[in-house]
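pinging the channel bc i need a second pair of eyes. not urgent but kinda urgent?? the chain im working w is below, pasted from the shared doc
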Amino acid sequence: MTTAAQYAEFASREARGVSPTYERLAHAVAADPAILELLATVPAAKRQPNLLFAVVRLLGGPVGDPAAFHDFTVAHWAAIEPELRARATQTNEPGRCAVLLPVLAALPQPLALLEVGASAGLGLFPDRYGYRYGGHTVGTGRPVLECDLTGTAPPTRLPEVVWRAGLDLNPLDASDPWLDALIWPEHRHRRDRLRAAAAVAAADPPELIRGDLVDDLPTLAARAPRDATLVVFHTSVLYQVPAVRRAAFLDLAGALPGHRISVESPEVVPFDGLPPAPDDTLLNVLALDGRPLAWARGHGQALHWFG
């Protein structure tokens, strides 16, 4: 896929109906030869819309007006390029815990959680947040994570977590401004819950290990308590991993004791015989131990169960 096509697809399948600002901006970049030429100077994995837009916002640039974005990007490319090369889209969206909860609550308790691609570790506290599935609430913590759940009954309990750890090539502090820059412009509710989730993590910091998802996973997994169910999970992470390493990780994680939960694009982790998606937006597949269970929106705002 060309870079222009990547931005056009982002506009139509990810940003449409979710972020008018990014929909408009991505369409503009897709038709902007000057910015496309600049993006061609960085590796393909570093050209993605979320990454470019977040870097520009981190550097104080405008994203609300495509013409102003063009001018800023061209004028400040010398500062933007190294940030693109150094950073990754470590969107630490606590809302994704609402997608994980139906599976986590049904596993044998207590749980030992190990998140691959943990960023700042905000996904490691599914037992501390509150949830609202339509008119059904679970838990009393903050933030309250809302999810439109169809196809199955909502969970009735929180998981019991006795151990939690994260693995990431570049673990972040929950106060890192990069996390805020990654949140889409109109999403004030996501900023509010990021701050609330960061307060939860600050009160009881999770163990975050700097390491590789293949080389360092077995050592960290071996530290989980033997009397707890090990759950290795990853959400919207593997698209950043080269295919060979991705396959090695899936084989390795599948051979560990316990369970593996994945929430990834079916283009990244494919499955045979998936039912039709509920719409044409970019959706992930929630799966347990390689068995697909549901379609999930990228920020955890909806879960369409079919498993």
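so The longest helix spans residues 188-203. and The chain has two domains: 3-86, 94-305. — does that match what u expected or am i reading it wrong
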